[in-house]
């Protein structure tokens, strides 16, 4: 069986190989070849940062990429590799595992994912890839009526929608911005009907994103805590991070 590096680089076009190779090397040195690449015919690619337990306190990182063979395969692979690379950059392997509520936990995972996009988009572009293929096209309509009827559209839901739409607008090509503005307007109308004062929260979230303070690796956890405060939920108190041997440990920064 060919090794994981050869396998990964097999998807990278010749003119980008040299640049992407250094990313692949860093990712492999972190996961120690404990990386799995699996193909899917679905248009959606995704990654998992899992762990393999060494003893009660420690684990080694384990990365897995499920890669679409049908939609932007090369770009998606680099995108997911950048997610796997992120813990080396900012030290946060997993966040939010101390959150008991499932809904809040899922939200913290989505938040971390979107934050990472904002951090690594410039690396992706520097490799020479186009912003047109940074994200998989998302054609599903935001069905707010159903969410309102079922009662899940509380103030946290709207704040997170604002966060998701505002930050994603930074990650799409120029010709898609009008479409995302439209989504934002629809969302605002629904949110304001239920929570007329929520615009105060929206502006705090907007300022949080625009400051880009979360791009600085040493202030990311502090920034995430302040974002969760804006959301009005109990901020995570522990993170899974790595030591100099790339072993994962739980810390309470
Ligand atoms: Zn992503």
TrEMBL record:
Descriptive protein name: Uncharacterized protein
